[in-house]
Amino acid sequence: MATATAATGATSSNQQQLATYDDDDEFQDACDAETASATCALDLETALAEAKIAVDLFFNNKFNEAEALMKPLATSSMYHSVGHSVFTYLEAMLTFEQQHIAAASEALKQCLNVCNRYRKKNTLTETIGKTFKKVNYDQYTDLEAHAELCSAEALLLKAMLTFIEDETLTSLIKGGMKIRNCFAMYKECNNILNHRQWESESSKLHFESGVRMGLGTFNLMISLLPARIIKLLEFIGFSGNKQSGMQDLITGSQSEGIRQVLCVMTLLGYNLIVCYVLSHKEGDLRFCDELLVKQLKQYPDGVWFLFFKGRLEFMKGNLDDALKWYKKSWKSQNVWPQFHHLCFWELLLRLDWRESLLFATYLVENSKWSRTIYTYQKASIMCMLKTEELHSSEIRTIATLMKEVPKYKQRIAGKSLPMEKFACKKTERFFAQQSFLYVPALELMYVWNLFKILGKHFQLADGVYRIVEENLTHYGERVNSKSNPAYSVFAADNKALLLLLKGACLRQMNSPLQATRCLEDVIAMYKDIKEDHYLVPYAIVELALIYIDQGNKDQAIRALEDAKKNYSGYSLESRLHFRIHTALIELKGKSYENIPAGDE
């Protein structure tokens, strides 16, 4: 009778674990669950050792060898299954091709199935007891602990894939619930890490690197969100503690655990990309330099670290050095040519429009990440060339590209991408103004927050300033001639754009008084602007950054609050709100870290 009760409890617990996944996720055992560890899989230490070899192969560009090591045991060993799933997931993200997305989805379903075999099976009594008393984590074996961690990792990837697999509201909700469950699993893994006696120090080391990576990334990324979103997420169980997240990732990056390199990648991505796109602050470039010295010593030809080295030099304003490292990156491997696209995207911003056009053309023809953005980007670069520099066929090509931009518009997680919507609006303007736009490539540089580089590279800043000044002169001539009524319809929009770019450029050139005059002129034009209403709140934030540079904290806060509360419904609003959020946190000393990470 006791045996029957225990079996019933275990069955109930198993059902709860399966509920962590989707109703759609089918679990097909490659071998019987009861004998899996005995007959189908390697022991944990061996599996970890092989997974570490696969990681080293992958980051040395030996992608096929890494995949060949992981795939044969992907149906029985959880670390081989996670490795195989990560490789298929990366291929799906790089190619955006439906067959690769479907393959990644199947691999992750299989991985969740494999991990579930090794997770601790609680009896009904144990499940009820967890509600009333402290859990005894010593009841977990090392294998069961790692199964929890691997499940969390696979579930996170499955959640991210859900957003691009299916655009329905149901899938969006499912993806959100998976991420919530994943975060809860990482917190439980943190409890396991800190409240049990480990059978193997090596096993604990690898486990800890995974916990640090998972919780650190969650806390860091959530902390970047606007306050109102963070408060909602905290209500449903998330936390957004930036300091805790950074410390976890730094600790993980200094360990010898299997996920050490992933902690490094997250830190590099945050400091070299996220900081520059979503905030007004600089990343920690010195820290990134230190990380890259170590990683390039270990992976001298690794495409990822060569790319990050190029990005580091780019953000320092060393454009020639950046080009050198980007070229090394794309020449280091040909298995996944999509890696090259990362470098080509960066190389568009050197103000050599003919050279930029070559890279833009390659992206349009070969990349599937966002055909809408890439097509508009190519057309924008061609618009930067003077009419006398264009062949008649190129003028026709610009019009063709602008017509094609809306055709490729996509939806992810049920929503259009803000940058794609922005590009589509600009193509409408192009035709409304009889095939003309003012400095569209510079406008793209600005909304991608790349004007930061101008302050570190005088020649580049001076080049941008001269282009804007020439176009302001051109604008005045067109308005005064009154030869084309279409110009007068959007006169305020065009002038405001040029003045915003001029003001932003002058701020980077340390000319705050001139910059302020330009930005105040933009704000004063609010009622005259017909479509580009985003220009005014962006100008207000630029003014706030000038006040910050001048040490005028109170005035900066008032300007940021003005942009945040009094303007809405404009293009790229969320992008600006991220920057406002990080600036206000810095100025007010305010954090949204009420829920600590880790222990419950």
TrEMBL record:
Q: What superkingdom does the record give?
A: Eukaryota
State the species of origin. Anopheles culicifacies
Signal peptide feature range: none
**TM regions (residue ranges):** none
Q: What Gene3D superfamilies does the annotation carry?
A: Tetratricopeptide repeat domain (1.25.40.10)
Q: What is the lineage of its organism?
A: Eukaryota, Metazoa, Ecdysozoa, Arthropoda, Hexapoda
List the protein's name. Answer: Tetratricopeptide repeat protein 39B
